Amino acid sequence: MTDLTAGLWELLLKGVWVTVQLTVFSAALGAFVAFVVGVARTNRLWIVRFLSGLYMEIFRGTSALVLMFWMFFVLPVAFGWQLVPMWAAVLALGLSYGAYGSEIVRGALAAVAPAQQEAGIALSFSPWQRLVKIQLPQAWPEMVPPANNLLIELLKGTALVSVLGVGDITFGAALVRNALGESAPVYTIILVMYFILAFLLTRVMRAVERKAKAGIGQAPQKGQGVLRKLTIPRQADAPSSDLSKSAGGA
What local confidence, expressed as pLDDT, does residue 223 receive? Predict the structure, then answer.
């Protein structure tokens, strides 16, 4: 650890910034793809549902790493489009994780009560108006928790870009490991780095979830997790203590 000089630390910190950029850009592309494909899979036209389902099956069933190689090595040969490694990685990750996200969108939209759709039809809303004014406001809070899991998976999936020479955390760690000849301290540090990034991302998504639920009139639940478990026994003990007091008074 004492050999981890300031220059090597700077290399790892630059890798953190590259990882954050990869996650943000890939998530933006993935969210767009997930919304378009997810909504298309609920369309009343069978050809739209078929094409969107075909896209989802293809990109969900292929390896993101192999797709990354295809974007970087095959596209220049087949079409003459040479992508820089960064954007080849963003395109591969965004298209892959967008296919997973489309199932989140489709499932959340399908969970909206049919009576809500019927109310929109009764009000002469167009399909687009029903989607924007009725379905999405109610489906959005249901999308956030699984989207949080998918974003964390995307964050960890950015480590694949190191094989293309993109200077993310994993690539920087490999250079530091080669320079120091030590594996345990270097990879322990990047484990902590990924955990911190995932924890911060979870905090942000929890705030988004609370805001989304508040938007449809659902009060945020307080005392979740360990704190809630600790308060439950106290609440459960309250009736018994009241009974003991009443018995003593009698």
Answer: 47
Residue type, 2: T
d(C-alpha 110, C-alpha 102), whole Å:
12
pLDDT tens digits, residue range 141-164? Answer: 889 999 999 999 999 999 999 988
* SS3 label, residue 131: helix
CB 99 within 8 A of CB 67: no
Number of H helices, E strands in the chain: 11, 0
Contact 22, 114 (CB under 8 A): no
| Side chain identity, residue 95 | L
Nearest 5°: the CA angle 138, 141, 145 is 150
Helix/strand/coil for 83: coil
209, HSE (Cβ side, Cα atoms, 13 Å): 16
* Burial grade of 38 (CB within 10 A; 0-12, 13-18, 19 or more): buried
Residue 80, SS3 per DSSP = coil
Q: Are 96 and 58 in contact (CB under 8 A)?
A: no
Distance CA 75, CA 78 (A): 5
For residue 11, name the pLDDT band (cuts at 50, 70, 90). confident
Which residue, 51, 205, 216, 40, is CA-closest to 131?
Answer: 40
Output 72 or 8, whichever has higher pLDDT.
72
The encoded tokens of residue 68 equal 């990354």
The pLDDT of residue 235 is: 45
Distance CA(142)–CA(215), nearest Å, equals 12
Sign of dihedral through CA atoms 118, 121, 127, 129? negative
Token representation of residue 98: 């967008």
pLDDT tens digits, 179-189: 877 788 888 98
